[in-house]
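#help-structures
NK: newbie question, is this the right format to request a structure? protein is DUF3000 domain-containing protein
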Amino acid sequence: MDDPKEGERDAMEAAPLPFRAAVDALRAARLRPQIEIDPTKPPQRLAPFTYALEATVVDGDEDLADGRLVLLHDPAGHDAWQGSFRLVTLVRAELEAEMAADPLLPEVCWSWLTGALQARGLSYGEPSGTVTRAGSHYFGGLADRPANSQIEIRASWTPREGLGGVPDTASHLASWCDLLAQIAGLPPAAPGDASIVSLPQRRGPQSR
């Protein structure tokens, strides 16, 4: 049986140098210890070259938030991206009932994404996405479960390319982790930064 990791290595060796450099930067990034991150199988049809990571924000035995970040690369460029790279993300966390009822919550969560990128001085373009609130109520055999609410951010943006056509993917990953930590209710990594307000800590997402 073929070794899937060997196939991944072969595919990476055949990829263009800018994409390989962008992936190497993602792999080498140092992140805050509460965020557990691992490579995962990327979608195959979104771009000629793809790489994906999945992450969980952990506090003790609790999962406070989770997410997925996908790097796309099309050497020929993409009209909708206005570039040859694109970052696509999904971030999810459970909410306290009071937060879920806030009518401004979607706008606030979207501002956290753009603010996380801006806080690290990152240049990007063509941002787009959705913020979704969902609530679950349980009945019958599940009636003893408490109702819960969840926030979900789906977004994508084009990282500006630097020397050699390579975007600063490590910094984009760090800003994405800032967003994950913020939606999980963790305090900001930089001490004394009172400009960032996080969601209160809560129970983590239920098992998928």
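mod (FA): yep, format's fine, and the tokens are attached above. The first helix runs from residue 4 to 14.
NK: thank you!
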